[in-house]
Structure formats: C-alpha cells, structure tokens
Amino acid sequence: MSPRQARAVRLGPRSVAALVLVSAVGVAGFGWPFLTPPTSRIGAHAQDAPWLFAGVLVLLVAVVAAAISESVLGPKAVAMLGVLAAAGAALRPIGAGTAGIEPMFFLMVLSGRVLGPGFGFVLGSVTMFASALLTGGVGPWLPFQMLAMGWFAMGAGLLPGADRLRGRAELAVLAGYGFLAAFAYGTVMNMAGWPFMSALASNVAFDPHAPVAANLARFVAYCVATSLGWDLGRAVVTVVLTLTVGPAVLRALRRATRRAAFETPVTFDTAGR
Length: 273
Description:
This protein is an all-alpha fold. Helix content is 67%, strand content 0%. The chain has ten helices and no strands. Helix 1 runs antiparallel to helix 2, helix 4 (104-115) runs antiparallel to helix 5 (117-135) and helix 6 packs antiparallel against helix 7. The two termini are 36 Å apart.
C-alpha cells in the first residue's frame, strides 16, 4: 500500500468481539418473530425496547472503549467521528424523510467506504443517536435505527476493492450498494414496527399463532404496501448524491484520513533536552 494512501481505521480483536456481540443482539431484536415458534408466548417486544436500547448503548460504548484501549481509535479518529456524526445528524432533517429524501445515507456509505467497517458501524449508530436528539425522535424505535444505520455504514466498509478500485468503477459500486442497502434498511426497520400491528386489524400484520412461512408472506406484503415507495425514494436519492457529489466527498475524506494518519504512532523528540 502506498504511504500516501488513506488507511481505514482497523479494529482489534476485542473491538470485533464487541461489534459481533451487539450485532447478535440486534439480529435477535429484529428477527424474533421469525426465530420464535408459533407456540411461544412472546407476542410483542414493546416492553423490552428500553432494555434493548440500554444494551445497545452499553455494547456500543464497549466497541469504542475496546478500540481506544487497543490504540486503534485514537483522538484523531474520535474527532473525525464527531465531525462526521454531526454532519450526518445535520443532514437528516433535510426533507425530514419525506418521500424517502434522506441525504444522510450517502454520507454513511462514503464514510464507511473510506474509514472501514468498524468505524462505519460506530459512525452510523452515533449519527442516528445524535440526529434523534436533534430532531426529537427519541423513542423505542431508536435502538433499532442505530443498529440498522450501523450495519448500513459497516456494509460499505466491507465492499471489495478498497485499496485498488477508484474512479467511475468505485462510484458505480458504491451507488449500487447504496441503492440495495437503502431497501435493506427500510426492510429491517419494518421488522421493528410490524409486530405491533394487531393481527385482527390487518391480514398483513404479524400473527403470533401463524407458522413462520405465513408470517413471512405477511411481512413481504406489509413491506410492499407500506414502505416500498419510501424506500425507493431513499435509494434514488442515495444513488444521485453518490454519483454527483460523491467524488468530492471521497477525496475530502481520504485527504483528511491521510493527514490524520490514524495508525501512525505518536513520537516525541527528546534529543534537545
């Protein structure tokens, strides 16, 4: 790798373990309607949301603390995390999500691409938390939003060709990922609210007594009926912003990463003493 090339923020084994743990908690929190048998007495998780919120925050802090203790996420990376999270939080109120106009998603894609999957996960989660405080969107849905956005940005960091792919080819990959991931984000978030619907009120609501296959069909119908247009708008906006302002943002992020030299050890010259 060229010494002038931007290097992603790498996570050590303890950081990866914490990230895997918080992701496992998230999978259970989102997917429990498909993971529990029809005879289960679990009918809704509204009362569990505050506990999940607390658990996600604790595990997210554990990811950051583990990274810092492993001398990976140092002061410069923390400063960049704060800047990018503030920028993403400021972008979210633009359009307020109307018709899927959510420009913060493209920034998460590009940041995860340049700074790596671990940094992307933390950035996505922190950005969603900060934006919720800014817009007053704090509620039982917030932990699910933090997890989903963390996965969204982390996925961009896992895309192939981070060291070699540049130019139009890279933009095409990022735009394609952003398009698909925007639908994935909406689908995952649907799983957080879908079980709250009364099965008696709609034939697309979660039925705790129905088999998994029947509930899966209900969920697909629910997504098509309620969020397909919204997700399409989010996907299109993400693609357009990635292709238009993406090159400039990528250059700025890589320039800042090179100058910060996250993985360069700090040394002190004591020869003159």
